[in-house]
Amino acid sequence: MKRYVIIGNGTAAVGCIEGIRSADTDGRIVVISAEERRVYSRPLISYYLEGKTDLERINYRPDNFYSDNKCEVLYGKKAVSINSDATSVELDGGETIEYDELCVATGSSPFVPPIEGADSVKSKFSFMTLDDALKIEKSVNKESRVLIVGAGLIGLKCAEGLKDRVKSVVVCDLADRVLSSILDDECAAIMQSHLEDNGVSFMLGDSAVRFEGNAAYMKSGKTVDFDALVTAVGVRPNISLVKDAGGKCGRGVTVDGRMATSIDSIYAAGDCIESRDASCGDVKIMALLPNAYMEGRCAGINMAGGDCRFDDAFPMNSIGFFGLHAMTAGSYFSEKDGGETFEIKKGKSIKRLFTKDGYLTGFILIGETERAGIYTSMIRNRTPIASVDYEILKNSPKLSAFDADYRRKALGGVV
Amino acid sequence: MSLNYITPEFEIKRNYDRCISCRVCERQCANEAHIYDEDSKIMLADESKCVDCQRCVSLCPTHALKIVKNECAFRENANWQSDTIKEIYKQASSGGVLLSSMGNPKPLPVYWDKMLVNASQVTNPPIDPLREPMETKVFLGKKPSRPERNADGSLKTDLPPQLELSMPVMFSAMSYGSISYNAHESLARAAAELGIYYNTGEGGLHEDFYAYGPNTIVQVASGRFGVHEGYLSAGAAIEIKMGQGAKPGIGGHLPGTKIVGDVSRTRMIPEGSDAISPAPHHDIYSIEDLRQLVYSLKEATQYKKPVIVKVAAVHNIAAIASGIARSGADIIAIDGFRGGTGAAPTRIRDNVGIPIELALAAVDQRLRDEGIRNDVSLVVGGSIRCASDVVKAIALGADACYVATAALLALGCHLCRTCQTGKCNWGIATQRPELVKRLNPNIGRERLVNLMTAWKHEIKELMGGMGINSIETLRGNRLMLRGINMTEKELEILGISHAGE
Amino acid sequence: MKRIFVDEKWCLGCRLCEYNCAYSNSGVVGMSKALKGKKIYPRIRVEEKGDTTFAVSCRHCEDPMCSKSCIAGAITKKDGIVRVDQEKCVGCLTCVLVCPYGAIAPGENGTAQKCELCIGNSNSSGEPACVGGCPNKAIVFEER
Amino acid sequence: MKLEGQVRIPSGCAISAVISKEGRRMTGEKIIESMIPMHDRSNGLGGGFAAYGIYPEYRDYYAFHIFYDDSAAKSECENFLKESFEIVNAEIIPIRKIPEITDVPLIWRYFLDPLKSVLSRRQLDEKEYVARAVTAVNTKINGAYVFSSGKNMGVFKAVGFPEDVGRFYRLEEYEAYSWTAHGRYPTNTPGWWGGAHPFALLDYSIVHNGEISSYDANRRCIEMYGYKCTLQTDTEVITYIADYLLRRQGLTLEETASVIAAPFWSTINGKDETERKTLSYLRTVYPSLLITGPFSIILGFEGGLMALNDRLKLRSMVCAEKDDKVFIGSEEAAIRVMEPNAENIYAPAGGEPVIVKVKEGAF
């Protein structure tokens, strides 16, 4: 009977458990969970604040998930080191657990930049875990003024989640636009203006250089008074366990297409790894829930002796604020990089399709996001533009743009 | 000009409490009788375009629609009825011959409905078709007048070519062109599954349907469209069409708009050209000419295929049939004056020809009187509507029946009688691809098979009631029929007694 | 298992499937009452391109991308049927972003909805409503 | 009210028969007795017998038995016969006056020899010539009815119960190698002597129990070939069918049985190829001579008889043997009366012909 150990208890760990169990129903699975909670959906913490979910529904899997999958979960335990020679993991209590196959799914940690006077801020938070959300929930009220440092996905979802609970929300970011990692200037402007219309204030191209109690002194010379400070400038993959054990790492843990690290019998999955972006070829960290699950599952299958590859990851995001949805995927090549862009704009909605060398490489959709998965599949499958009716696709994603044979298989067959 | 205005025949009644403006009616009406008003978000109608085909009624998911006769009426007049008046208006404005489709709708006597079927009581037993074998198999073709024996005394079992039918019903001629590819496919597949035959009509045989050749009767009509050696050999039998019940004495006319693509290729005429079949075969001006054509076709097919001669039921039908029986034909098909059509001049359809019941009785008796009844089989058509019509026809003396209108109804036809417009909303009498696809042959085949299976059950029930367990002994068994509400003359022609006698 | 299959050869583009779907999932008895004056959010959609029309609904994939991608764990596949737990869905629409067939769309309240084969719908008649209502058997429910 | 011949009258019946395969002749006593236990199968409106081998001294002449309504009919008929035949002998058929039999017509017997000159002028087969004469008398001469026309055989029938009819005709005085008998239960009252059974043409005679459903199909078919069904009875049409198939079409008895009680197609399809082809041929060529509805018949002919049931066996009929004799009856009781020690009693299956032939040369 194989002994499987999974470090971490997030989405990648769930994927890993389900992957193992799809191939091996008997092996022993031990999950080392730092958080004293069963697995929940991290991205849902903002929805929790917003009231769209609750402490029950936020759970990522049903109550009987672990028992059904015959998993032993060690809650509140941290793995402190991996001894790859002894094939064991040492926990913070000193005990060791031996493994035949190990999956590192340690995720990432929020990055908190060192800013002068930060210690003087009493009410300051990260926005990563459910505990973070619960703490924020406890500390704010209808009169609170909230300053959020970071206008990325996490910062803005936090802003949306808090908006109706507090008096004001100000978001600042060093970048000159919101969602700078996934939107270009124009799209960001649309999103920003929509957020502003819904009561969120921005200070972009600006950053706090010093805190003093409940005041932030900005680079621009402005001062922001706040009652709560949320830092959401980014995350760092938790790679130290693998790195210390001698595993190869870049910014994230290096894995191959089977999610294997450079050390035998050690796999890694989720936000802690870096992988190749299939839409452009660059190796990067694509810390997204769907990827984490699929990486975990891939690792699990391989750990149980199966053969699975997951090497077509690329960035994609579906995110909405106050009813305006944005969907993005892949890479945006500018004209000087040899790319072509098709664009439709109408009021608050915008569509950008990016193509290069005869393939769709990425897109940005704001407002009209209907059936975006058809575009996504073209990136994933590397469908040649020449094989479809692009004129139809430009207007809207439709299966009628594909040839009849494809439709016959897709709609008349088992897929 | 207001003088040209003719009140629409129908009124589209929409129950607005039910209508959900889903626009299905609008999408389904090839006549564009339904209109969606974007501003008010409600459905409107242009009734002048409605032909009462009931497509919208059938598909409306909330049953919000009803097509009713327009109540706007001329002052009542038993002589000048509203149809007559409207026809005069139409002709006064157009100067043309009036066209219509399907069978004669006039209230002329339907003799099937004046004949009643016998059943066994006491003196002999009815037979339960669920418990006992009940045979409906029929062979059509010439029967030898004397058996011959081999040297060892055994019977020589060779027969002239015969058509074997699992039940005495066949689908009669409807050309590819007048009806759609999918309608033909439905008929062909159903015939094959049922062990009966369908008939190409005069439009040739589409290459896709050669596979159904063993269940196909190929027709040779006056236009000779689509006739070639391969075609003649492809079928199980060849039918020479001399006339059609709906329009005896005139030819056919399929407008160029229906001669598109495969239809043109199958007919072997250019796209867009009108397909005009002359009134007579120009090589048949007399009975001896017919004999020549019969034998030409037999020569062309090595005497392996029975030859059918189809004629319309006209006044002198008994003598005509006698002539045909002596022409070498194996089967005579007679089409009564109620027979359907894809298009016919209204006056002809409604006034020419005689009822099939009388024609059949006269022909059967005449051939018996001449002792040549077994030289030919008799097939009758022209509004065989149900199993009891079949049973009555067989009892009068037919070997089998031809059905077409009933088959079309099974395929979805609602008898709106506007086939000639080519805009059949049920995908039958049309060549417009978006309408043709409305008839899915998988459904069409199934419905035809269902219909014929149901008829077969009913035929067996009726036979069993009469104590007859094989269709052969029903044929010509006129004692099984009694007339009702008929004159002595009618009874005499039909060769049956009045009920109560 | 039985699935819904569509054959564009027989689709008439009448869109009855959309309305039958909306009705089946309305929970209301009486189609007029359920749909009159309302915008419908059918789980099957008809596409048109010239004379070609066909309906698209969830394929209930062997390996459903939507389920793997759902950030709320709201989409699961059981007994071959992929379903959305409307209680758990937060309307992020990641599933819309990943479904290769465009078969998932937000409903009236913003959560994701998709064809669940009409199972458990009070006014459905055993087979999916789109199938039962298709006048030309362009949509069938069968094993393949 | 319409009489026999003007309307079709269904009837129930009793039949019985005995034949000696050795050609030993038997008096009519036993066959008369056989009808007594089946008394209730008749209603007194018709009974009759056919006897083969009774006129050995006139074996070369056609024996015509004729009913006359009056002497005018008799002289008209005799004049007609003289045009076609030499009348070798003419006599009244001897009868016994009994109270059970009333309204007796004139009953005459003629032994006839076709006139060779007329025969050759009309270019007809002799039997066809005789058959046409019979049809002509029966259809054209009012008040005259030929009810027996074979050689060395005779039919005796009357309105009454069969056992009375047997006594009336003094059948104990005749000796035959084959006897058939019939008791009738018609469903209307006007008894007519000609309507009683057996029905005969030439040496074919039929006794029949049943009511066939194929009657008019059979009639309208057989009438094409010159027969005229003046009586509208099953027995008449079956006799003509037998005559047509056996004499004119030259079919064997077995083939004839396969036409009139044809096996079901499902049965035919299960046969080997030769038989299948033959049976299919017969059904295809003679569809209108298939007989459906209930019947049990005994066909008498020179030198034998054939018993046959409809293919569903809707009427009772049993057979038995004893020594050289074969017995057939609607009921076993009839057979037991004729031969208490009868053996091999069995009920033939529907459509299965029972053919008994007298040894060649013994009749």
Provide a descriptive summary of the structure in words.
The complex is a heterotetramer of chains A (415), B (501), C (144) and D (363). With 415 residues, chain A is α/β, with parallel strands linked by helices. Chain A contains 11 helices and 26 strands. Chain A has 3 domains: 3-38 and 58-109 and 236-303, FAD/NAD(P)-binding domain, CATH 3.50.50.60; 118-231, FAD/NAD(P)-binding domain (3-Layer(bba) Sandwich); 323-412, Enolase-like, domain 1, CATH 3.30.390. Chain A has a 5-stranded parallel beta sheet with strand order 3-2-1-7-19. Chain A has a 5-stranded parallel beta sheet with strand order 9-16-10-11-12. In chain A, strands 22-23-26-25-24 form a 5-stranded antiparallel beta sheet. In chain A, helix 1 (11-23) packs parallel to helix 8. Chain B folds into 2 domains: 2-96, Alpha-Beta Plaits, CATH 3.30.70.20; 138-142 and 167-498, TIM Barrel. In chain B, 29% of the residues lie in helices and 15% in strands. Chain B has 15 helices and 21 strands. In chain B, the strands form 7 sheets. In chain B, strands 9-19-18-16-15-12-11-10 form an 8-stranded parallel beta sheet. In chain B, strand 18 (377-381), helix 11 (387-396) and strand 19 (400-403) form a beta-alpha-beta unit. In chain B, helix 11 (387-396) packs across helix 14 (441-465). Chain C folds into 2 domains: 1-57 and 117-144, Alpha-Beta Plaits; 63-101 and 108-114, Alpha-Beta Plaits, CATH 3.30.70.20. Chain C has helices at 16-24, 31-35, 65-69, 94-98, 129-133, and strands at residues 2-6, 45-49, 52-56, 75-78, 81-84, 105-106, 112-113, 139-143. In chain C, the strands form 4 sheets. Chain C has a two-stranded antiparallel sheet. A two-stranded antiparallel ribbon of chain C has the order 2-3. In chain C, a hairpin with a 2-residue loop joins strand 2 and strand 3 (52-56). At the B-C interface, helix 1 of B face helix 1 and helix 2 of C.
Oligomer: heterotetramer
Strand content of chain C: 15-25%
Fraction of residues of chain A in helices?
Answer: 10-25%
Structural class of chain C: alpha+beta
Individual helix count of chain A: 11
Averaging pLDDT over every residue of chain A, what do you get? Answer: 94
* Overall average pLDDT of chain C: 93
> What is the overall number of helices of chain C?
5
Biggest sheet record of chain C: 2 strands, antiparallel
CATH class of the largest domain in chain C: Alpha Beta
Quick one: CATH class of the largest domain in chain A?
A: Alpha Beta
CATH-level-2 architecture of the largest domain in chain C: 2-Layer Sandwich
The shape of chain A, in one word, is: globular
- For the biggest β-sheet of chain C, the strand order reads 1-8
Ranges of chain A with pLDDT <50 over ≥5 residues? none
CATH architecture of the largest domain in chain A: 3-Layer(bba) Sandwich
Largest interchain contact: A-C, 52 and 39 residues
Q: From N to C, what is the helix and strand string of chain C?
A: EHHEEHEEHEEHE
Derived from helix and strand composition plus strand pairing, the structural class of chain A reads alpha/beta
